[in-house]
Amino acid sequence: MKTNAVSKTYDGRTVLQMPAVDLAADTVHVVLGSNGSGKSTWAKILAGVLAADGGTMPLTEPCRVGYLPQKAYAFRMSMEKNLRIAANDREREDRLLAQLHLTELRKAPANRLSGGESARMALARVLMKPFDLLILDEPSAAMDMESTMLAEKAILDYKKETGAAVLLITHSIRQARRVGDGLFFLKNGMPVETGPCKEHLDAPGTKELKEFLEFYGG
Amino acid sequence: MQTAVIKAIELILAGDRELINILLVTARMSLSSSLIALAVGVPLGLILGAAVFRGRSVFLVINRTLMGMPPVVCGLLFYMLFSGVGPFRHYKLLFTVELMILAQVVLITPIVIGNMENYVSGIAGPVRETAKGLGLSRMTTLRLLMNECAYVICSTYLLAFARAIAEVGAISMVGGAIAWKTNVMTTAIMMYTNRGNFTLGVALGLILMALSLIVNILVTVLQRMISK
């Protein structure tokens, strides 16, 4: 799947200048970068929730794009009904709830879940549907280590099952090592280093990524 | 106070015909005006809160100004429009319950719009982003957004009803507080107080509070059912 070159400017300040890239299917593309590096802006443009400058289409051809925003909304209904908003597939629903240790909470009102439970529910909901490109914006930011591991397993299973290209935005270098196939390291709205994830994290090719890894304990 | 409570109970138990008439006019006026205001204000509040369009901030400023409109100003406006020299005199609505309801709707609708807009603008962005991320259609997104508003519509109705039942300035001007016709609880309380009959005034006040309590309980029960 190919993306077009996109940019985004706010009040004369360019926050994103992303060239065209190829997002291979059946691959987890990790997006790393500090706050304000343009990760979420790129994700929103690819998901179609934010318009790029000049109205550029983010993808070269139409495809099914799924997106989990940083602050996904928990609808005022039970957790299982939240999942059914995405797709009415009981078998898949049962499997995802079990995989993310949510089965006991399936009847619970989604708007009264804890932060970690709500994050797992939001992940399960987006994984209900098969997409060609799945964009996950820090899906485990509110999760503890155990939940993070469950979430990562669910994401990897989804990729294997659907063959989707997964774009995973994270601040966790450990998570990037565990699940990442490809890497986009962004700084000031531009990709500074891209390529195979583990290779670049083991031997960063730029001063910027090296400093980032040192700072974030990679 | 004790005398007033006893008097209030006596009035209700005796089935005083004038009191029953006042109660019925009050119920008709406050229920009709608050429900009409809700029917008009909820969709407008939804649009103002969820849609992005040129001139939205102008509508917001106008609505916020109308939310603070003094009831007597509204009453004066309607009095001038429907009195013997006004452009709408042919409708012969002055000193009728219908015009009291109309004036109330004008006073309450901006409050309903403002309350809805305030809530919807807070959730519309996350709801839209989440729905788009799940590949949902615009119609489904709108349905989900409206479903999210069910709870707040109940509390908005309570606000509208409270404003309607407590109103006195505008309705006394356009209704004239005519006994057996346009006299409602608030105007009756004013009338009895002016006559020095404080006991009856307080008794009516207590009945008014009891009415408000009953509506509040009913709507709160409905709200709880929705939240489940």
3D architecture notes:
- The complex is a heterodimer of chains A (218) and B (228).
- By secondary structure, chain A is of the alpha/beta class.
- Helix content of chain A is 36%, strand content 20%.
- Chain A has a domain at 6-71 and 131-215: P-loop containing nucleotide triphosphate hydrolases (Rossmann fold, 3-Layer(aba) Sandwich).
- The relative contact order of chain A is 0.18.
- Chain B is mainly α.
- Chain B has a single domain, classed as MetI-like fold (Orthogonal Bundle).
- Chain B is globular.
- The model of chain B has no long low-confidence stretch (mean pLDDT 92).
- The chains are: A alpha/beta (218), B mainly alpha (228).
- At the A-B interface, strand 4 and helix 4 of A face helix 5 and helix 6 of B.
- The strand count of chain B comes to 0
**What pair of chains forms the biggest interface?**
A-B, 25 and 19 residues
- CATH architecture assignment of chain B: Orthogonal Bundle
The count of β-strands of chain A is 8
| Number of discrete helical segments of chain A | 8
Order of helices and strands of chain A: EEEHEHHHEHEHEEHH
Structure summary:
Chain A is α/β, with parallel strands linked by helices and 218 residues long. Chain A has helices at 39-47, 79-86, 90-99, 115-126, 145-162, 173-179, 197-202, 207-215, and strands at residues 6-10, 13-18, 27-32, 65-68, 133-137, 165-169, 182-187, 190-196.
Which properties best describe this structure?
heterodimer; A: 218 residues; alpha/beta; Rossmann fold; 6-stranded mixed sheet; two-stranded antiparallel ribbon; B: 228 residues; mainly alpha; MetI-like fold; 9 helices; 81% helix; 0% strand; globular
